[in-house]
## 1
Amino acid sequence: MVLFHLKTFGCQMNVYDSSRIVGLLAEHNMEPTEDETNADIIILNTCYIREKASAKIFSELGRLNKLYLRLKGKSPVFAVIGCVAKAEGENIFKRAPFVSIVLSSQKYHLLPELLKKALAEKEIIAKENVDNKKGKKTKLSHLINTELSGLEKFACLPVTKNTEKIAFVQVQEGCDKFCTYCVVPNTRGREISRTEKDVLEEVNNLQKLGAVEINLLGQNVDCYNGLDENGEKSSLAKLIKKIAKFENVKRIRYTTSYPSEFSDEMIELHATEPKLMPLVYLPIQAGSNEVLHKMNRRYTKEQYLELASKLKNANPNIQISSDFIVGFPNETEEDFEQTLDIVRKVKFIQCYAFKYSPRPNTVAAKMDGQIDLKIKSDRLKRLQTELRKSQDAFNKSCIGKVMSVLFTDISKVDDGYIIGKNEYLQPVIVKADTKLVGTIQNIKIESASYANLKGKII
């Protein structure tokens, strides 16, 4: 049996890709191992969104290579896949010549055959190098495929054979928005959607295997327009309505939304479909219209606030989470104050906030007016303080309420306690029989902190 060690970096989309890769390689007698020192294959599934993403990958490759050099005799096949693979391409081989395979996210269905070829070549080279009396080493050839393509990878993936209670399903990939700070169109390609039939078959299989919560994934999930059974374009709302008909599916979530693509059909669905969770992840990035324009975000602050209001009017239980970037080129103090203003108005319950970092081959990286790191750090700290106020206030408002919690883990800290997530993805801790892990229970919240809620089963 060939052993592989798979390390995943970045977003939930990469986590999903890695789960499918594990199943794909299992079909070819390749088994995952947590022990990186005992692996025949090392796979890094990479992300290119955050600052110094490439540097992190090259650093990890260097660490692993040194580890195997110390072991003397163990020489695994190295594969770099995902967004850094697409962005860096041949440069990976130049900086890390021991890497055998570089493969984009759209091509990972080719991984088994490429790995088999690389493993066979390793054996031949090892023998040649032992037999070579002149001491001249035979070099490894490089296998690369980073061209973007369509949906054929999904047709090549095997049916999932096991799942957790919370399952993820990719329905859409790529992005046509071309935000000036973002590399996704270059690393994940243009927008494509899987057919309804393809998605529904995967969901049906997952719910039969025991999944009770389905998370639909897409770079711009609102843009889902896969063909239905009649060959006509569907929509995210229509797809969710069909998924909700599966009896074992109790919860449905989706991410990531794009504000100007969020449809009235989806707003109405949040008012009528009880299986659709009331947490809407709606990245805004900045509160200043001037900054949004420079980011090429295709909405205004006013339009965003109107959408938030429509959602909460449709369903008073809805809460909103978001993303923010501070210190975008030419962002003024007044621009930043508008970001703080929208935080106070919307009262986000969970958010990700980052300092702007230039990404290679993006428009924003070449803009004048790059902000000093000290200013960016100060603004991030102030923003996080404001966001924490909103999250703390919401957490405390949950005390005394009854919330639905899907329990997924046993507490590693408190004996006799189990942990789950409520409708809003807040961690909830309850003293209860561990047999309840995997079930959904109604919990009365008794206390709240910034990190979690605690309660009892009713």
## 2
Amino acid sequence: MYAILISLSCTLLAQPPDMRKLVSQSPRLPLERTEFIPQPPGPGWAIGYPTAVTMDAKNQIYVLQRGSEPNRPPVNGTADPILVFSREGRLIRSWGKGLFQIPHSIRIDPKGNVWTVDAASSMVYKFNPYGEKLMQISVGGQPEGKRGFAGTTDIAFAPNGDLYISDGYGNARILVYSADGKRLREWGSPGNGPGQFKQPHGIAIDEQGIVYVADRQNGRIQRFDLQGKFLGEWPIGMVAGVTYAQGSLWIGTQRMEDNTSANGWLMRLDRKTGRVLGTIESSHAHHVISVTPKGEILTGARPSAIYWFRTPR
């Protein structure tokens, strides 16, 4: 009987919400969208689709950009995949040319190291803040014959230093590595049941060791402990991005019936209940989201926009 109740509970939780109604009934976040404008260091310099943006403790802004995307018009320019800017948009340094096929996410760990994942090659790179490569992890395991998007999507850092990687294009799993790059375990399989995934696209971990996975095509956030034990789920639209910082859980989401380039919302959630604490419209800026040291949001959007959601001055 207990197993039947658990199964019924999971089925009920999986019912998709009416996103517009949910947004209309939720408080609006006290943030306004501003556009961060990089200053070109010279003629002919351009970026294409900043797929992820983050900020370090020194308020330097790190942009991971794709340049030319698969099946999209090419971008003419000489920008490296990883770009570091001052708050005012001045290019400080850049690196990464030749390392990436489809750069997807960039994160900064608690020690200030810079991590990236590639959605085609499934390579994970660790750099110091000056671009020196410190480690590379070849996740591998892409399905035979699958080209283009076939690899990793995001990375998060556990309180003990372990690395948690979402492998959502071609696979449906979460991988765990030690801080020195040794694979420890993995969990997940294709499907829509507890602990199963249909494109795990983002991952975050709080200080209590709760793992939050943006199960994009299943329209939910799934929660786990550090060993992969399923703790629950929240249906919250086609959620692509999830991040945790300074006691707050943030997501980027949209309606399930829209395509992945459609407009959506940034939301702050109660991490115990999944209740929406605040929303703001995000246009396409909900793919991968990051929180600044001041609790503001940085994200990128097609074709070349970098958005900074911050407190009005």
## 3
Amino acid sequence: MTRSLAVMMRSSVGAPARQYAVAAVCVVLLSGALYAFVPPVPYQSVSLLLLFAVALLSLTLDVGPVVAAATLSALIWNFFFIPPHFTLVIGQTTDIILFLTYFVIASITGVLTTRVREREHRAGELYRLTRELVEAASLDAVAAAAVRNIDRTFGVRTAVYLSSIDGEVFTMPHPSSTLVTNGRDDTVAAWVYWNERKAGRAVDILPSVRPTFYPVSGPRYPLGVVGIDTGPRERLDAATEPLLQNFIGQIASALEREQLNELTRRTAVFAESEKLYRTLFSSISHELRTPVAAIVTAAESLTGGNVTDIGGEIRIAAERLHRLVENLLDITRLESGRLAPALDWCDAGDLLRSAVLKARTVLGDRAVTTDVPPDMPLVKLDFVLMEQAFINLLVNASLYTPADAVVTLAARVESGHGVFTVSDNGPGFPESALKHLFTKFYRVPGSRAGGTGLGLSIVKGFVEAHKGTVAASNAPAGGALFTITIPTETHPTEE
């Protein structure tokens, strides 16, 4: 209690002289009025009236003036009303006890009443801030409400620095700020943001700047900084500082809410944009597939399989366009997340030979061999997806090997996994490119024209849809080596 009284007394040292004057005038006037009625009014009753006056003064004055009024009223009561009159000497022991009791009760009553009034005032200010923050519908509105309430409640000038959604602090105060800062102030504010510690005037950390900066911390990352300039005062008093910290806590909650709302709005817009993109992309791809397929069929009818004339050139170009459309459709299916393999028993040899047959045109004169053990059991795969994966690997081989290269496809079963390899005797890949080969739209630097960089990313997607893995490396004897490993069931072998 004594410590609290001392803190409140220190906070009231700067109370306006007008409050002390009002306290003194009220006590003197009331004492004079009571002195005129001393004969019929016992001096014990005068103390109660003076005590009542001190309690009333505590409803409007600060602690310092109230304690001054209690002291002055006690002295006047002793000097003019307690026998012997016109002296500070108290004759009877009971009057001494009565005098001391009056002084203590008057002081405590005034202090407690003032404290209750101040707490009510602070609760009202905090409620007003909370209400305005709840009504704020944007980060700008939150910043404006914060500046307005801090200025009004604490009698300061305020600067608010906000962070962006990605966690970076703005280098300039918000436009609603009333505190004009300079480059040095902004640097200190940035330091406070990243270190989440108070700094500035009246603080041991970076005290050379005039404002005092407070971090606004959130549960995930800092949300901003609040800077205040107390003017001629060195700092906020000890009784007011906790209220400012409560303000900053409420502001932090509002900023976190609005940042999450903004992130939700951006996510919704992005999701709608992505959905529109996929729908449009899929529609266009399907619309292209029909005429391209018709062109391929017509070109085959014109050439009869001969690719040396103009019709053959049309056929090759149409097949290339057809592969592009198929790749676009495949990547759309993969990105939609709705690709589910239709597993069925497959013969690995048939799978590889079918892929080679469909890629024959693009392979040109390259020799292609398949290596499948004669006793290899049937494996459970999606034939269509894996056939397209091997076609893409063969197309990739045609892009990165010379015309006389040899491409080898092999299959085997190891420990419940189907292991497929596609290798060639070409130049292989640069070591720096190996980790990027399955990235969408990636093409090896210096490679010849042709391809879109989607083929290998589709291979990776189809293999992962089977819960398998695909890896690229350079074979020890030279050339590229792609290894696909898929967990699969094997069909029981028949005698």
